[in-house]
């Protein structure tokens, strides 16, 4: 097959985010409710064999980068075996992991040996009590241990994902920026998104990311654009003068990055999602084993991918052109 994964707008897709589970050991306030979630039974999750087959077919079409997500991907048993199998597929050059970090330190060496190249760790507060509140029970010490373990096994770059929320952690922006001074790390500030919300409650927590650069100006920290971070996708990158690390701004609501989107998503129950925000999905299961039919399904999904997710319209209460998903972030894989 020589087809390239290109959509109607000329965007070439070489990146697949693979959710391996919708389950998580935490209940972060922006990701899932405290209780009442209906999780997929194990038999409905894609098997490792099925995931490998999907990636093998897509690698022949130009797929090069993977990200393993959840839920929390490290609650899936033997995840290092999947990473090893994926890293052995011809054409796959990069495998990243998004994790809450709680279980990472004990698995870091296994995952690195299996072929993991990069890591994103969620860390929405540096204060232990507040971190426990946002995650509904998480232990920040274990996340800090995960960061140290990522350094120890040589993962690069190491990124910290910070979802900014008004009244919850927006007073910690300075503290997160200070982390970049002495460590080669990237702190990525992410706008609160209306994913899986059928109400307007998310707007009360929304913080525009101009707040971050405003804080730099208030502290007198000279900031310069910085563009050399591998796999950074939609992040606008900056560096405080003299710092070892960097910070990034990911603002899907106020300044969307759809025109350069190069990613597709595969949910843990086997659905291709062309766009994170819209409800369109295509199930892969009955096509596995037929390489051409599976390739055609992905091309079909690309053909309906919209030019924009239109989250800004949701913020402004404007009419949207598609139906937003009601799946929670944990069910999609981010």
From TrEMBL:
Task: Quote the record's cofactor note.
Answer: Binds 2 [4Fe-4S] clusters. Binds 1 [4Fe-4S] cluster coordinated with 3 cysteines and an exchangeable S-adenosyl-L-methionine and 1 [4Fe-4S] cluster coordinated with 3 cysteines and the GTP-derived substrate.
Which UniProt key words apply to this protein?
4Fe-4S, GTP-binding, Iron, Iron-sulfur, Lyase, Metal-binding, Molybdenum cofactor biosynthesis, Nucleotide-binding, S-adenosyl-L-methionine
**Binding sites annotated in the UniProt record for [4Fe-4S] cluster 1:** 24, 28, 31
Query: Which parts of the sequence belong to the Radical SAM core domain?
Result: 8-232
Listed under catalytic activity are:
GTP + AH2 + S-adenosyl-L-methionine = (8S)-3',8-cyclo-7,8-dihydroguanosine 5'-triphosphate + 5'-deoxyadenosine + L-methionine + A + H(+)
Q: Which domain of life is it from?
A: Bacteria
Where is [4Fe-4S] cluster 2 bound in this sequence? 258, 261, 275
Residues involved in GTP binding:
17, 67, 98, 159, 263-265
Q: Name one GO molecular function term.
A: GTP 3',8'-cyclase activity
> Pfam families recorded for this chain?
Mob_synth_C, Radical_SAM
UniProt EC number: 4.1.99.22
Q: How would you summarize the oligomeric state and partners of this protein?
A: Monomer and homodimer.
Protein's job: Catalyzes the cyclization of GTP to (8S)-3',8-cyclo-7,8-dihydroguanosine 5'-triphosphate.
Protein name in UniProt: GTP 3',8-cyclase
Gene name in the database record: moaA
């Amino acid at each position: 097959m020589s087809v390239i994964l290109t959509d109607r707008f000329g965007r070439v897709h070489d990146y697949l985010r693979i959710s391996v589970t919708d389950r998580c050991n935490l209940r972060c306030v922006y990701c899932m409710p405290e209780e009442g979630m209906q999780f997929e039974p194990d038999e409905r999750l894609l098997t490792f064999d099925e995931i490998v087959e999907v990636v093998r077919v897509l690698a022949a079409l130009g797929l090069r980068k993977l990200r393993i997500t959840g839920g929390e991907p490290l609650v899936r048993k033997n995840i290092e075996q999947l990473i090893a199998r994926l890293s052995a597929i011809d054409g796959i050059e990069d495998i990243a992991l998004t994790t809450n970090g709680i279980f990472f330190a004990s698995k870091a060496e296994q995952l690195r040996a299996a072929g993991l190249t990069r890591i994103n760790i969620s860390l929405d507060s540096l204060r232990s009590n507040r971190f426990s509140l946002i995650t509904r029970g998480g232990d920040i010490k274990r996340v800090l241990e995960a960061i140290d373990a990522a350094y120890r096994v040589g993962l690069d770059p190491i990124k910290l994902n910070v979802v900014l929320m008004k009244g919850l952690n927006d007073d910690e922006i300075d503290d997160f920026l200070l982390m970049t001074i002495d460590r080669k790390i990237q702190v990525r500030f992410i706008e609160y998104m209306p994913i899986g919300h059928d109400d307007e409650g998310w707007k009360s927590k929304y913080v525009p990311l101009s707040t971050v650069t405003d804080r730099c100006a208030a502290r007198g920290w000279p900031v310069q654009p910085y563009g050399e971070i591998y796999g950074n996708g939609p992040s606008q990158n900056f560096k405080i003068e003299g710092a070892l690390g960097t910070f990034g701004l990911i603002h899907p609501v106020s300044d969307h990055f759809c025109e350069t989107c190069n990613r597709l998503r595969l949910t843990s129950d086997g659905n291709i999602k062309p766009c994170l925000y819209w409800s369109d999905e295509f199930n892969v299961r009955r096509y596995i084993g037929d390489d051409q039919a599976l390739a055609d399904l992905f091309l079909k999904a690309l053909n309906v991918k919209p030019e924009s997710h239109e989250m800004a319209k949701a913020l402004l209460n404007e009419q949207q052109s598609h139906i937003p998903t009601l799946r929670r972030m944990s069910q999609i894989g981010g």
